[in-house]
Amino acid sequence: xxxxxxxxxxxxxxxxxxxxxxxxxxxxxxxxxxxxxxxxxxxxxxxxxxxxxxxxxxxxxxxxxxxxxxxxxxxxxxxxxxxxxxxxxxxxxxxxxxxxxxxxxxxxxxxxxxxx
Length: 116
Known about the structure:
There is one protein chain. By secondary structure, this protein is of the alpha+beta class. It has a single domain (about 10-115), classed as Arc Repressor Mutant, subunit A, CATH 1.10.10. The chain is about 45% helix and about 15% strand. The chain is built from five helices and four strands. The protein has helices at about 10-20, 25-30, 40-55, 80-90, 110-115, and strands at about 25, 60-65, 75-80, 105-110. A four-stranded antiparallel beta sheet has the order 1-4-2-3. The mean pLDDT is about 90.
């Protein structure tokens, strides 16, 4: 795929990863670090969080939380932009979830799909 004009390399990575459908935050961290250690994934969180927030502000992605996977559209909730930065900057949301943790996923919008 050609580089998407106007996006940073990490933003481009997020868009590509979300191309096939919803992608969980922990999956993004694992993919960016090539299944690296937990410490490597934690180091990647600020870059990924900034990319996700930027893409969401430009309308290219949406971020949802869901108690189940795959997400049930009836139960999935859009994380509003005014809360998104706090949610995605929380390292815990990027780590392998425990049983009681809601799942957070990034999905392309129609605008984001048009970039591909």
